[in-house]
Amino acid sequence: MELVKLTQENIDQEHICCAISSNKDIQVMSKKNWLKERLKEGLVFLKGNVRGKCFIEYIPAEYAWAPIRADGYMYIDCLWVSGQFKGHGYSNLLLDACIEDSKAKGKNGLVLLSSKKKMGFLSDPKYMRYKGFQTVDTAEPYFELMYLPFEKGAALPRFRDAVRGQEDMEEGFVLYYTNQCPFTAKYVPILENMAKSRNAVFQSIQIQTREDAWECPSPFTTFSLFYDGKFVTHEILSEKKFDKILISKGL
């Protein structure tokens, strides 16, 4: 499979895998606008020359929209190979390309967000351990920071203190999100309207800068929902799934 690298010159023409509809779709527009700014900071988006979810997205960790300390590392935002593309070695192809590129750029290693067991939107811990990654830090309720060092002696990556302090969060639903994932552009307004129709307290906080992301109380800044200060889910919710949560809260 040939790999295509997104650039400022081709991003408007190329599809971005996780949102493959028209460029005029709000999901595509929000993601591409976010990517254009990140490309200036060294983000790399490599995808297979196919129409579907087969890509890796990574960025120097100093610019990552995640509450981590990992200077000198490369942070993998997302590695996604789905459906018909599984079982062909494409995950290895994409990850190996990231490793080669990161080594050429003099990085200390790779770092990414995973979980105790395989969960949607997070890197598969079993596969990552197979590729040599190790858990270096954890955060409640199930997040794991994993890393792949290229050489000995480099400082270990860590979560920032923000992920361990949620005591001052307001009551009701509080949602932190970014435009890093195109699906938030569609579903956040839907969730807001659903909450309003049920008279549920719902506050959505769109993270606008990486500095704000560093202060997020959840490692997964793309989408993290809290209720009365307690973590609910990092999964970008459909109407049906959010309805179940509302019912569980008596709303």
Task: Provide the descriptors you would attach to this structure in a database record.
251 residues, alpha+beta, 4-stranded mixed beta sheet, globular
Explain the overall architecture.
- This protein is of the alpha+beta class.
- 26% of the residues lie in helices and 26% in strands.
- The chain has a 7-stranded mixed sheet. It has a 4-stranded mixed sheet with strand order 11-10-12-13, with helices on one face.
- β7 and β8 (143-149) form a beta hairpin.
- α1 packs across α4 (183-197) and α4 runs parallel beside α6 (239-248).
- The longest helix is centred in the middle third of the chain and has 15 residues, at 90-104.
- The chain is globular, with a radius of gyration of 18 Å.
- The N and C termini lie far apart (49 Å).
- The relative contact order is 0.13.
- The model has no long low-confidence stretch (mean pLDDT 92).
Sketch the major β-sheet: 7 strands, mixed
Spatial order of strands in the largest sheet: 1-2-3-5-6-8-7
Question: N- to C-terminal separation?
Answer: 49 Å
Q: What percentage of the residues does DSSP assign to strands (E)?
A: 25-35%
> Based on helices, strands and strand pairing, what is the structural class?
alpha+beta
Overall outline: globular
Rg over CA atoms, rounded to whole Å, is 18 Å
Mean pLDDT: 92
Task: Count the beta strands.
Answer: 13
Instruction: Give the helices and strands as they follow along the chain.
Output: EHEEEEHEHEEEEHEHEEH
Number of helices: 6
Report the uncertain regions.
Answer: none
| Percent helix | 25-40%
